[in-house]
Amino acid sequence: MTKEEELFSGGVAVITGAGAGIGMGLARRCGAIGMTVVVTDIDAARAEAVAADIRAAGGKAEAIRVDVSRPEALDVLARQVFDRHGAVRLLVNNAGIETLGYTWEIPAARWEATLNVNIHGIVHGVRAFVPHMLRAGQEAWIANLSSIGAFGQMPTQTAYIMSKHAIQSFSECLYLEMQVAGAPIHVSAVVPGMVKTSIFDPEAGQGEKGMGEPESAARHRATMAHMMAAHGMDLDEACRRFLARIAAGEFWVDSQPEMTRQSLDARAAFLTEQTAPALNETTRQLLGLG
Ligand SMILES: NC(=O)c1ccc[n+]([C@@H]2O[C@H](COP(=O)([O-])OP(=O)(O)OC[C@H]3O[C@@H](n4cnc5c(N)ncnc54)[C@H](O)[C@@H]3O)[C@@H](O)[C@H]2O)c1
């Protein structure tokens, strides 16, 4: 029996943005090891399809439409899940959107959405669920989706990159808050390098009208999608690793340790040497600068 089966089987998992990508992969893995999975997503049909797949494979799952950019929706979700299923053992704050383009060309609505989904969606997930977890008094796990982008600079992905820096920092402080409070809650920062998902699909994160990226972003998005298809890690393999390491109580949960190491080394050098931000070879390639 694996560590995650031993600790998580029979428990309740709540995952945001679980209608596709990493959230979906984690939901399937949680279902396969015997958790009751609450599959939430802004897209109700996608969430239902994932929950139906889990049930068809013999697992337990329920789909609920939740837009994480609305704090009150997370309050309702937390109450609903604790009332219906009892204590939540695993909360994965996963929902996130990419936004590409020059800062000054991105519509205000898209800026707001990026910060609301990527930062506030996670902050309010924690704010809504932790009081219920503390009252339940049982050991619990919270995993927040950070990114390898949390350690670097990427021009024209500024909104996304700054949101991930924020979530990395939020998760580090939250980890310590649990110690200060003596709470039986483990906190992990999940740091995917590149995992094959739909995040660079042209329509991803478009949401409401007026949230479109500038036209200049389309080429960058296509390059990123191509790189992800060519070099990304298999989704199920990544999610299997993530869940095992979350269960082990690790704070750092990455998919491709060598990529993480490279980024951290570059970040450490940038900070200790206090150089100006510089366009490196990889960044130039991704931006099509030759
Ligand atoms: N795929 C990667 O290589 C990678 C790398 C680093 C970090 N991440 C992070 O992993 C997380 C998942 O990304 P992914 O690659 O699986 O993306 P994805 O686009 O494949 O899936 C994201 C899901 O989130 C949902 N979503 C979007 N806005 C939402 C909202 N307001 N409320 C609820 N759900 C919403 C979407 O409908 C979609 O189902 C994100 O936080 C992302 O930043 C991914």
Notes on the protein architecture:
- The chain is α/β, with parallel strands linked by helices and 290 residues long.
- It has a single domain, classed as 3-Layer(aba) Sandwich (Rossmann fold).
- The chain is 52% helix and 13% strand.
- The chain has ten helices and seven strands.
- The protein has helices spanning 3-8, 21-32, 44-56, 71-85, 108-136, 158-181, 217-231, 235-247, 257-273, 281-286; strands spanning 12-15, 36-41, 60-65, 88-93, 140-145, 185-191, 252-254.
- The protein has a seven-stranded parallel β-sheet with strand order 3-2-1-4-5-6-7, with helices on both faces.
- Helix 2 packs across helix 8, helix 4 (71-85) runs parallel beside helix 5 and helix 5 packs parallel to helix 6.
- The chain is globular and about 55 Å long.
- It binds nicotinamide-adenine-dinucleotide.
- Nicotinamide-adenine-dinucleotide (NAD) binds next to helix 2.
The fraction of residues in strands falls at 5-15%
Please give the domain count. Answer: 1
In angstroms, what is the radius of gyration? 18 Å
* Corresponding CATH architecture: 3-Layer(aba) Sandwich
At the fold tier of CATH, the topology name is Rossmann fold
Largest sheet: 7 strands, parallel
Tertiary shape? globular
Order of helices and strands: HEHEHEHEHEHEHHEHH
CATH-wise, what's the superfamily? NAD(P)-binding Rossmann-like Domain
The helix content is 40-55%
Distinct helical segment count: 10
Physical arrangement of strands within the biggest beta sheet: 3-2-1-4-5-6-7
Bound molecules: nicotinamide-adenine-dinucleotide
Task: Estimate the mean pLDDT confidence.
Answer: 96
Query: In angstroms, what separates the terminal alpha carbons?
Result: 50 Å
What is the assembly state of the chains in this entry? Answer: single chain
Name the poorly predicted regions: none
